Every structure is written in C-alpha cells, then in structure tokens.
Amino acid sequence: xxxxxxxxxxxxxxxxxxPRTPAQIGLVLIATVFLVVFLLLPLVVVFSEALSKGLGxxxxxxxxxxxxNAIKLTLIAAGIAVPLNTLFGLGASWALAKxxxxxxxxxxxxxxxxxxxxxxxxxxxxxxxYGTQGFLGEWLADNRIRVIFAVPGIVLxxxxxxxxxxxxxxxxxxxxxxxxxxxxxxxxxxxxxQIFRRVTLPNIKWGVLYGVIxxxxxxxxxxxxxxxxxxxxxxxxxxxxxxxxxxxxxxQFAAAFACxxxxxxxxxxxxxxxxxxxxxxxxxx
Amino acid sequence: xxxxxxxxxxxxxxxxxVLAAGCPQSAGDGxxxxxxxxxxxxxxxxxREFNALFAESYGRKTGKIVKVDQSHGGSGKQARSVIMGLExxxxxxxxxxxxxxxxxxxxxxxxxLGKLPDNSAPFTSTIVFLVRSGNxxxxxxxxxxVKPGVEVITPNPKTSGGARWNFLxxxxxxxxxxxxxxKARDFVTELFKHVPVLGTGARDSTTTFVKNEKGDxxxxxxxxxxxCLREFPGKYEIVTPSLSILxxxxxxxxxxxxxxxxxxxAARAYLEFxxxxxxxxxxxxHGYRPRSDTTLKKHAEKFPKxxxxxxxxxxGGWAKAQKEFFAEGGxxxxxxTKK
Lengths: 285, 339
Hints:
The structure holds 2 protein chains of 2 kinds. Chain A is mainly alpha-helical. Helix content of chain A is 79%, strand content 0%. The longest helix of chain A is centred in the N-terminal third of the chain and has 34 residues, at 65-98. Chain B has 2 domains: 9-123 and 248-302, Periplasmic binding protein-like II (D-Maltodextrin-Binding Protein, domain 2, 3-Layer(aba) Sandwich); 127-246 and 306-337, D-Maltodextrin-Binding Protein, domain 2 (3-Layer(aba) Sandwich), CATH 3.40.190. In chain B, the strands form 2 sheets. In chain B, strands 4, 5, 6, 7, 8, 9, 11 and 12 form an 8-stranded mixed β-sheet that branches. By secondary structure, chain B is an alpha/beta fold.
C-alpha cells in the first residue's frame, strides 16, 4: 500500500553495498529461505500439479464449458468493478487530498471499511440486504430482479471488496504532491476540468495504473465474499476461484490446479506490470 | 477527451451487461425447461449422471429439452441459500429437517414429506468408517474410535448434514451399548476429543482425510466411502460397524419457485424419476442403498446388513434431535466448549 515512494528507494540504494558481517549474511539467508518456502515453492507446486496429467488435460480443463463460463464471469465482474472503482478512487482521492472539509476523516475511514471487514461478512451483508428475507428482498422479488445468487450480486461483492484500492493508492501520492501546481494553473486561468486533466492527472497517472492493477488482481482473485453470494450454480454463477474449489472437491486435482494456474499467471503478470510501473514512475519523476 | 469518452462508453456497456444478466429470464418458449437442483455435497457425481438420464427420458416422453443446473454445498447452508432467494426448483438435501426449514418460510407445503413414496427419500444411506488400507489401528466398531492415538475426521454438525448423522449414530451406539444417555454423552464427548479438525461439509472432511492424509478414520456416508474406494483403489477399506443410523436424504419440489418458473410439472417428473428402476440402479452404482428391493438384492454384497437406528424411532424426529443436540447451546455446544 506504500505506493511509489521514491525517496526511500533512493536512500536504500545508497546504503546497499551487499552484506558483509555474518549477521548480515545470516539475515539475507533467512529472508531467502523464507521467500523460497512461502512464495516460490507454492508457485512451483501450482504449475507442476497443473501439468501433472499432461498438456492435453491442462487445456481440456481450462476450455471445458464450466471453466470457460467461470473465466467469463470473472472477467465480467472485474470488468465492471475495476473501471467503476477507478473512477470512484480518482474522485475520492482528489477530494480528500486537495480540499479541506468537515467529515473528511470519517469519509477516509469509510473508504477503508472494505479492508477491515472480513470478506465473508461482506458477502453476508449483501445476502441480508438483497436476500428474499432481507431488507430489500421483498421489493426485488416482486419486481423479479435477481441480485444475490446471480451475476449482479457477484459484481456488487467484488466492487465492495476492491473499493479502496485505487483511492488508497492515490491519496498519499496526491497529498505528497500538494496544491502548488494546481494553484499555479488556476492563476493562469485554467478551468477546474482543465486543471484536473492537464495538471493533476498527468502527475498521478503511474499511481492510478498501479492502483488499477492491484484492484484488478484482487477483483479476479476474490473468493470469500463472492462465495457467499454466488449460490454455486455450475456454469452460471461460479467465478474462477470458486470453480477451482469445486474441481478440488471433486478430486479433479489436476484440473483444479490448471484453473488455479490461470490465477497464478494473473498474479505473475500483475507483478511484472507493477515492477514496470514502479520503474517508470521512478525514472519519470 | 476522446479517450475519456471511450472509457465512459465502456463503463456504460458494462452496466448494460449487468442489467441484462440481472433481468429475470423469460419462462422459456415452452420447449426448453431449465431446472435448478440445489443439493448437498456428496451427490455431485450421482446427479450429473442422473440429469443426463432424466433429460433423455423426459425428452422422449414430452419432446421438451431439459437442462438441469446443479448447486452443491453443505446441506444446511444450501437450505439457507434457498430461503434467502436461491431459485431452486427442487431441493435434494441431506436431512428432512433442512427441507422443513424451507417449508417454514412458505416456499412449499408443510406436508411435503408425504408427497413422494418412502418419506420422500428415493434412496437411503448410512454412516460407515473409512480407514487406510491395512486398518493398522484395528478399528471394527464405534468403541474403537476412542482408543488412545486414534484420530477421527468428521465435519461440523453445525454446518453439515452428514455430520449430524455421524453424531447421532455415535450417540445411538453408546446409548445402546452402555445403557443410558449420560454414558452416551461421555462417549461422544470423548469421541470429539479425537477429532483434530471439524470440516464445514462432508466433502471437505473427505478431502482432509484423502488428500491431506490427516486422521486414521473418516466417519462418512456409505456412498462417499464407496466413492473413495473407486477413486483410489487399494488405498482404503470400508469398515461397517455393528450398528449405525438410517439416513434418508429427502427430496422436494420448491412449489413457489417452480410455479414462478412454470416448471411444476417438470420438477415433479424429475423427482418421480428418482424412483424408477434405472435411477435406482444408478443410485446403487454410486453407493446409495436403493429403495427398490430387486435392485438392493442385486447389490447385496455392496451393502452389508447392519442394525439401523432411525431418527423418528430413536431420537423423536429431526425437530427434537436438532433442538436437543445441535441448536445454540445444545448438547454439541456443551460438550465441545467443555473441552
């Protein structure tokens, strides 16, 4: 959540000249072992299990109708949640970082709410709100609108969970940049929209991208909240993570890991993009 | 500016897609029927084959194309989902009690149990032990489960229908063997001390036992145990205890939902088809004890005879058993918090 904190990176570069004392070497060793055991090995296991029955079964597992549907649904959910949360995040961080108003800290903690609430609880909130016994349930049922146990519920849950990512990324960045450039633009006669587009946005574009990527990764990987609102109808309301669980429970371990490897690939792509953006953001600023 | 417009257009398209997906589906053209069967965990494989069988037979009779969607999970959780709005045309759950809960919310008639033969349970099952090949801990009956060093895997009775049967079977055995409810309570308390993890559903616990290789004995539905024998030949053995419990997984049409979908006739036909010889044979293949005597005799070696308690006869029905044992503050809560 630290974002692009260039000062720290520079300071780190000045100090790092390789470990020298035994204690330093020991610490590096511990860190390396930890990374291998907790991050690298699981990744290797995912791909080796996925390919354990051969490439043919791997592709069969990710192209069968239920898997394709799960992939489609995951893309739909992320495709809606990410752009909307990006718009929201831009607006919220702009308002929070550049202006002073009453209730600012309350709004800030409200934005953080999805981070502090357990995903399962988040899902249950939607069930209680939109379920037939719930708060809005009767009205929805009368109008034959399905929210939970259908695609809209999954989208809503995903949006809720990924709500803070972009905003949280941009608020510190914008605060750090301050208001000077905006004030200069204003004094030269720029309108509000012009200031936002030509001054604010270019300054934070790498931060926006970074937030979008994190938001997307979480949107596609979300399990807990979506599991509660999904209803688990095969080929209809299963997202990719839910599909992985089902396959695993059916003893189709190779197929489960094949689908899991798609999510792992997404993580790797995210990581690569993230490093690229950090590098660009670093050299750009 | 143009990019912003394109972005806005994309957002708008996405919105429309969600609205379209959320809109109620039309009742169909009268030729295709879509049913949703909300079921419990271990029936996944049975219903996959059964649905194909039914679609074929129903199509032949009526000329309609049937598509049956499946949803699986812990029985209690599934009932909850149906109550909260999961639009099941039929429910095929582990316990009559879970279907009663749905009926309590007026989604079907309260007397649903009598609408189909044999208590609306087209096949039965019982609780057996699955042990690792060789049975190194020499487990033969319930009292062997509390021997020192034996680890027992069973799901949580709070969330899993199967686990409630496990619990009651153990209780029934102890009461019969040791004489009274107090001793049965001690026995079951001791038994749950031998349980290292409580899974959420039957399949969850099976995976714990099979894939994660945890525990010495899995308390499982007979059908689930037989599935493990088929999936992993030579790795496991089934131990049938001297006494167990008769499980009657019940089925019912969710009248209110089926009516709204215009599926009443197809939903009823779907459940009635479970009682045909073809379906009974399929049930036996998947390890469920068929109701049909001829099919049961054909598979006698697969389903050894044992003494079977019943919920109604020995525990005063599900409502009473549920309240006494599994409700908030019931016997299960008492013995597990005391630990």
